[in-house]
Amino acid sequence: MDLSDRKQKILQAIIDEYIGTAEPVGSRAISKKENLGLSSATIRNEMADLEEMGYLIQPHTSAGRIPSDEGYRFYVNSLMQDYKIGIEAIIELQNVLENRVSRLEKIIRYAGAIASSLTDYTTVITSPKEPDFKIKKIDLVMISDRTAMLIVVTRTVRSQVMNVDLDEISCREIAEILNQNLSGLHAAQITFDKIQSIQSQIENRVPLSAKTLIDIMHFVYDTITEDNETEIYVNNAKSILKYPEYSDVDKAQEIFTFLEDKENLKKLIESSSSDGIEAKIGKENDFEIMKDCSLVSMNYSLGEKTAGKLAVIGPKRMNYAKVFASLDLISSEIDKILRYYMNGE
Q1: 141 and 111 in one domain?
Q2: Is the pTM for the entire model greater than 0.90?
Q3: In what order do the strands lie in the sheet with 137-144?
Q4: CA distance 97 to 148
Q5: 232 in helix, strand or coil?
Q6: Which of 51, 137, 250, 306 sees the fewest Cβ atoms within 10 Å?
């Protein structure tokens, strides 16, 4: 059923009031809104209709109303006003992210912390998967009798001590073959055919066991893919305690435990498939623990490709307009910085 303009204005006024007070809203409080120009009796009738339609809930017989999940959904989809982020906050965000931090992890952590500061809610952010590192150089160096050190150079340097039945000359020959075949390659380019070709070349020159070759290739592969897992960072989890919805100690502990479980958090925020900002309100979330919360999430990008997600978790009465505006701003700034970072400029 479509809502009349009057019902929409009353629903918007109730949700705006409840976001600010966390207290059930009565007709008297709404009648004082100058822009409505409606009597308390008219507002009471309209509130009763909105409750019957499923947009409001009356938690106690004598109390006012609070929004239902459906009420919040209508608000987010149709009633929410644009929120303007202050210029000071924008400048602070740009200054922090443009400070040429040397590690991608720091960029992501800063962005999540700023999102939490802007919204005053808990934020969750996933890191982008960096492209597989290219192999720059491989060395195999004898360090003692029957012991060699395998060194793989990508953007970083990793090494591993191995037991081998080789001499120094054989190690150099193996390293030469590995570099000829693997230098400049990503993990996806190291195919089974490539490994067979390497094995054949080595066998023609060096008595290397199949097990040792497999150990070498495993280490090389692990090295160029080691930093390719998505990380997840949580900021300001304790902000939950600020809100009356979590004044119950047991309830607060349950949500804290949930926020510490990174696998569940990944499932929660990755369940969003929208390219834009998406709000999941209360029971729209897949986890029972989130029934009294809302999740607002947004992808941030690297060029045309999604790099990660930034999400805000808070009570259902969160300031959606402010959260939407904050995420929109931050995701665009992360996009700029990631392009800058990845291009090595």
Answers
A1: no
A2: no
A3: 137-144, 147-153, 157-163
A4: 43
A5: strand
A6: 250
* Same domain for 205 and 188: yes
Q: Which residue has the higher pLDDT, 228 or 141?
A: 141
> Do 97 and 241 fall into the same domain?
yes
CATH number at residue 56: 1.10.10.10
Could you report the per-residue pLDDT of 215-265, keeping only the tens digit for each?
Answer: 888 888 777 766 555 678 898 888 888 888 888 888 888 888 898 888 888
Asked whether residue 51 falls in the same domain as residue 169, the answer is no
The single-letter DSSP state of residue 207 is -
Are 217 and 282 members of one domain?
A: no
Three-class SS string for 103-161? CHHHHHHHHHHHHHHHHCCEEEEECCCCCCCCCCEEEEEEEECCEEEEEEECCCEEEEE
Are the CB atoms for 213 and 238 separated by under 8 Å?
no
CATH of the domain at 107: 3.30.450.40
Joined tokens for residue 236: 């300001």
Distance CA 257, CA 181 (A): 48
Write out the residue range of the structural domain in which residue 158 sits.
Answer: 137-225
Q: Are residues 268 and 305 in the same domain?
A: yes
Rounded-to-integer distance, Cα 53 and Cα 64, Å: 16
What's the longest Cα–Cα distance across the chain? Answer: 96
Task: Extract the runs of DSSP E, i.e. beta strands, from 154-304.
Answer: 157-163, 232-235, 278-281, 293-302
Number of structural domains in the chain: 3
User: Which residue from 126, 150, 131, 155 is spatially nearest to 140, judged by alpha carbons?
Assistant: 150
